[in-house]
Amino acid sequence: MSTSFDVIIIGAGPAGYPAAIRAAQLGMKTAIIDNFVGKDGKNSLGGTCLNVGCIPSKALLDSSKYFEHIGGHYKSHGIQTSEPTIDVPTMIERKDSIVKKLTSGVAILMKANGITVFAGTGELDADCKVTVTPLDGSEQQHLNADHVILASGSVPIQIPGIPYDNETILDNAGALDVNAVPESLGVIGAGVIGLELGSVWRRLGAEVTVLEALPEFLATADTDIARAAQREFKKQGLDIKMGARVNKAELQGGRVVVEYEQSGETHQIVVDKLLVAVGRRAQTAGLLAEGCGVTLTDRGQIEVDDECRTSVKNVWAIGDVVRGPMLAHKGTEEGIAVAERIAGKKAHLNLDLVPWVIYTEPEIAWTGKTEQELKDAGIPYRSGSFPFAAAGRALASGDTAGLVKVLAHAETDRLLGVHICGANASELIAEAVVAMEFHGSAEDLARIVHAHPTMSEAVHEAALAVDKRAIHRVN
Ligand code: FAD
Ligand code: AMP
């Protein structure tokens, strides 16, 4: 096997493997090294995203959504069924088979593009040399390349003193593999992962309590959107306690006693399972040999410039291991851009317009600035919003929760932010990203013909509302 490459990529998640494909497309001799071990004990490409992140969580969100709708929502359509039951092992098997299909698909793509795959841990030495420690225990291999791309991703943050066993105290991987619906589930952290996985098990019948240290719900989202979402989650029975900082959790008699501080007082809840979802941190353990020269930020991320160059010539870093939102699509675009830069092309990526999505029900999605950010920056703006309850398509499907909010510059009308809480927000946000990438105005969105009846009409109406001329509500 060859040991000399144009490009070596360490990490085959959604940042690393597209970088490898693009490098190969551009004619570079490419290798990728990955150490993720799947449920079958073998290396499974695709990283956190395909194995224990985006895809498996969405599979369970869809299964649990259908279950909840049969039990409730569908009744209003006149659909009569006996009380539904859930066969959790079948649901998990379905999720696993989707993961297998996609991770095997990545292996097929590597082969089809002539990319050499090393199943093992890669460590960067000086001068773009890389040592691979194979997962199968065979002898180390020494590789070299003209360029190295670090794409080692992230791992869950642990709270000191709360160890996971992934049976009772779970991280994201454990919460995707629970084999029966727990009577009660505690979730530490009301971030994206806590809300999504908390929703899965609540829909299936668990009593879910979410403990969030911050006083403000979804502080990174626009306040109007966060409030609308919080109201819906409350209606659904998700018990979210704000300003509740967890410091301790202990196993007692097979259950977990969770202790948290709220308003200066200590409280306790006892739950059958506890999900720790307090964020993720850059994964650099075992990646950087002493003397390789790559520097880290004070947050432990690999330091990079705007174009993903590290402190070492010809060593690049992309995805969750560097600054910016920890989102799969952000890493993918960084990976493709870096492969193109290595090939001498000009590649551009606008991190300001990366769309954020939370796949709860209703979904939450946004791009650009929030109203609070505009206020803080002193940027003059106009705002228009439109509730889904006034959109015909939303009424027809029963998806009336939430709203669209459009923010535009008060003088130029240029779009500054679009925020959506509602069904299919994950798809609707794409229109806003395109409009904003093309420096569009609220007037542009207002003049574009939107099909009727669709959920996208709410985006159209919110853009009209910026100029106080929405048609289907009083301005
Ligand atoms: P990763 O996906 O973490 O991949 C890194 C890979 O590198 C891994 O396979 C790892 O084993 C390997 N590796 C690490 N170090 C080494 C080494 N030294 N040698 C060899 N291999 C190494 N994002 C979204 O955009 N949408 C979502 O809906 C979404 N849902 C999520 C749900 C959950 C439950 C979680 C946990 C995350 C979710 N994310 C979502 C975030 C998303 O998964 C990450 O942003 C994304 O996976 C980051 O991609 P990456 O390639 O940088 O790193
Ligand atoms: P995210 O970074 O989106 O995954 O969200 C993680 C959430 O966990 C953040 O909103 C944090 O405020 C919250 N969090 C972190 N540590 C604690 C803690 N000890 N107790 C409760 N919430 C926490």
Describe the structure.
The structure is a single chain. By secondary structure, the chain is an alpha/beta fold. It has three domains: 4-155 and 281-351, FAD/NAD(P)-binding domain, CATH 3.50.50.60; 169-278, FAD/NAD(P)-binding domain, CATH 3.50.50; 362-466, Enolase-like, domain 1, CATH 3.30.390.30. The protein is built from 13 helices and 21 strands. The chain has helices at residues 16-25, 47-52, 54-71, 88-112, 172-175, 192-203, 223-236, 328-342, 371-377, 392-397, 425-437, 442-447, 457-466, and strands at residues 4-10, 30-34, 116-124, 129-134, 141-150, 154-156, 169-170, 184-188, 207-211, 239-241, 245-252, 255-262, 265-271, 273-276, 280-282, 315-317, 356-358, 363-368, 381-387, 403-409, 415-422. The strands form five sheets. A five-stranded mixed beta barrel has the order 1-2-3-4-5. Strands 7-14-8-9-10 form a five-stranded parallel sheet. It has a five-stranded antiparallel sheet with strand order 17-18-21-20-19, with helices on both faces. Strand 3 (116-124) and strand 4 (129-134) form a beta hairpin. Bound molecules: flavin-adenine dinucleotide and adenosine monophosphate. The site of flavin-adenine dinucleotide has 36 residues, from strand 2, helix 2, helix 3, strand 3 and helix 8.
Second CATH tier, the architecture of the largest domain? 3-Layer(bba) Sandwich
Query: What Rg is obtained from the alpha carbons, in whole angstroms?
Result: 24 Å
User: Helix count?
Assistant: 13
Taken together, the total number of domains comes to 3
Strand tally: 21
Specify the overall morphology. Answer: globular
Largest sheet: 5 strands, mixed, barrel
The average pLDDT score comes to 97
Strand order, largest beta sheet: 1-2-3-4-5
Query: What proportion of the residues form beta strands (DSSP E)?
Result: 25-35%
Query: Structural class of the secondary elements?
Result: alpha/beta
Small-molecule binders? flavin-adenine dinucleotide, adenosine monophosphate
Low-confidence stretches: none
End-to-end span in angstroms?
A: 68 Å
Q: What is the percent of helical residues? A: 25-40%
The CATH H-level homologous superfamily of the largest domain: FAD/NAD(P)-binding domain
Here the CATH topology of the largest domain equals: FAD/NAD(P)-binding domain
CATH class of the largest domain: Alpha Beta
